[in-house]
Specification:
Layout: H1 2-7, H2 11-20, H3 54-72, E1 77-78, E2 81-82, E3 84-87, E4 92-95, E5 98-100, H4 105-126, H5 129-134, H6 136-152, H7 155-163, H8 168-193, H9 199-207, H10 213-233, H11 235-241, H12 244-247, E6 258-261, H13 263-266, H14 291-294, H15 315-326, E7 334-337, H16 339-342, H17 352-373, E8 378-384, E9 391-392, E10 398-408, E11 414-421, E12 427-429, E13 433-436, E14 441-450, E15 459-468, E16 476-484
Antiparallel strand pairs: 1-2, 3-4, 4-5, 6-7, 8-10, 9-10, 10-14, 11-13, 11-15, 12-14, 15-16
Helix pairs in contact: 4-17, 6-8, 6-10, 8-10
Pfam family, one: FixG_C
GO molecular function: 4 iron, 4 sulfur cluster binding; metal ion binding
Protein name: Cytochrome c oxidase accessory protein CcoG
Length: 487
């Protein structure tokens, strides 16, 4: 069989197989003209150069808004309680006037599914803008770089400082920088922990050194995790640890807006004077200043084409735009564009994949809204007495004992009325109207008795009904159980 398979492989078949392969693109690594060595190698420290421009201002303002919300939200109060609190020990998540319990797992699932499809939709349309503008790893990395610039100076100054031997100036600046990093990391850890533990109590306990050993360990972990990720690992997290960078290409197509270099216009690249006619010199618009690489937080050269390391932050766009302005060239040598536009083809912003994600988003958001609207903030668990399924009381009636657990899932104290149906002429022994505190569980032991002539079989279906007394709120649930007769 193997010989027959080999003989059937014609040159035409081999050619067809080869044509199905993705063509390999040779990437020329930028080298230093004097030494001939690579300018940037994996593992080298990346000294990100500061740059100003439209996209950097936009990114900074977006970062400021989200970072401000991150700091402020745990301090907000709503109806006498912390507005946002994910209390794992009490197994309840509070988001303003909405309290979620383990029983609301489907609602949490819809929230996560909705968030995932928002990410898919945005990635298909705008590429990795999440990474460049809102990802916590990127935001904290740029904040740490800001501390570096204020304490150690510009990228060139930081590079020279690291190359120096130990001296008082270097030791002082390094100590100040790492102290600022650690203090900021501690603030981050405390704020993050405030989403899972009462914020005011947490801050008081930390500053009075009265926190628990477990909380101290949690704060220490997140402090050093932030310090390590944003201070040292930085682009390593984006390149080697983040799964989003790996599967994002499945959502890309040739109409996705990404940061791209216009090679047709930029090549051949090379230095020239501002007043020289570069067209007559056989050069493109790229002056090979390497500024686009120096401002890149992941250290890539965008001129090598689309790369998974690119986080779409637009730093290289602003850097190149500044150079083009100084050279009196047209803007957009590096810009947000699509592969189809670079190839001179028609761009389809509205396309089948994007429409598909939009339809799924509408469906998911509708399901999420329906889940929230139809959610009943009340739960009832029924536990039977397992030691004796049924007994005969002094009246000769058959009696079953139950323990009812009533969970008030709302944020106000409520009065509930209980009843039972399914069997005629039942007698309720115990309270039938109870007050349950906000976000509390009320345990109510009761028993139901009935004349044995009303029972049709050994095991009979009954339904417990619980409804809120307040006529303004139509809160009512039913829970099935069983009533046993004596054998």
């Amino acid at each position: 069989m193997r010989a027959n398979d080999q003989s059937s492989s014609t040159p035409e078949t081999k050619k067809a197989v080869v044509e199905q392969h993705i063509p390999v693109k040779n990437v020329n690594v930028a080298t230093n003209k004097k030494t001939g060595k690579a300018r940037y190698k994996p593992g080298d420290t990346i000294y990100v150069r500061n740059i100003t421009g439209f996209f950097q201002k936009l990114r900074q303002r977006i970062n400021l808004v989200f970072f401000g919300l991150f700091l402020i939200v745990p301090w907000l109060q709503f109806n006498g309680h912390q507005a946002v609190l994910f209390d794992i020990s009490e197994q309840r998540f509070t988001i303003f006037n909405l309290t979620l319990w383990p029983q609301d797992l489907t609602l949490l699932a819809w929230i996560f599914i909705f968030g995932a499809f928002v990410l898919f939709f945005v990635t298909t349309f705008l590429g990795r803008v999440w990474c460049g503008y809102t990802c916590p790893q990127t935001v904290w990395t740029f904040i740490f770089i800001w501390f570096e610039e204020k304490i150690e100076g510009t990228a060139n100054q930081r590079r020279k400082l690291d190359a120096q031997k130990r001296n008082v100036n270097k030791l002082t600046r390094k100590t100040l920088k790492h102290s600022a990093w650690l203090l900021f990391s501690l603030l981050t850890a405390m704020t993050f922990a405030g989403y899972f533990s009462p914020m005011q109590e947490l801050f008081i306990n930390v500053f009075t050194l009265n926190t628990t050993v477990m909380m101290a360990g949690i704060l220490a972990f997140f402090t050093f995790a932030t310090y390590g990720n944003a201070g040292f690992m930085r682009e390593t997290v984006c390149l080697h640890m983040c799964p989003y960078a790996r599967f994002q290409s499945a959502m890309f197509d040739k109409d996705t807006l990404t940061v791209s270099y216009d090679a047709k216009r930029g090549e051949s690249r090379g230095p020239r004077g501002r007043k020289q006619d570069h067209k007559a010199m056989g050069l493109g618009d790229c002056i090979d200043c390497n500024l686009c690489v120096e401002v890149c937080p992941t250290g890539i050269d965008i001129r090598n084409g689309l790369q998974y390391e690119c986080i779409n932050c637009g730093a290289c766009v602003d850097a190149c735009s500044g150079v083009m302005s100084k050279m009196n060239y047209e803007q957009g040598l590096i810009r947000y564009t699509t592969e189809h536009e670079l190839e001179g083809k028609k761009v389809h912003l509205v396309r089948s994949k994007l429409i598909g994600y939009a339809i799924l988003l509408v469906i998911m958001s509708s399901m999420l809204v329906l889940e929230i609207v139809n959610r009943v903030p009340l739960s009832l668990d029924i536990m039977r007495d397992r030691t004796e399924l049924a007994k005969e009381n002094f009246n000769g009636d058959i009696e079953n004992v139950y323990t009812l657990k009533i969970l008030n899932m709302s944020q106000t104290d409520n009065t509930y009325k209980l009843s039972v149906k399914g069997i005629d002429n039942t007698t309720w022994h115990g309270e039938q109207e109870v007050v349950v505190g906000a976000a509390k569980v009320f345990t109510l032991p009761i028993s139901i008795s009935v004349d044995p002539y009303e029972l049709e079989s050994y095991m009979n279906d009954i339904t417990f009904v619980i409804e809120q007394v307040d006529p303004k709120d139509d809160v009512r649930i039913e829970q099935e159980s069983r009533f046993f007769n004596k054998r």
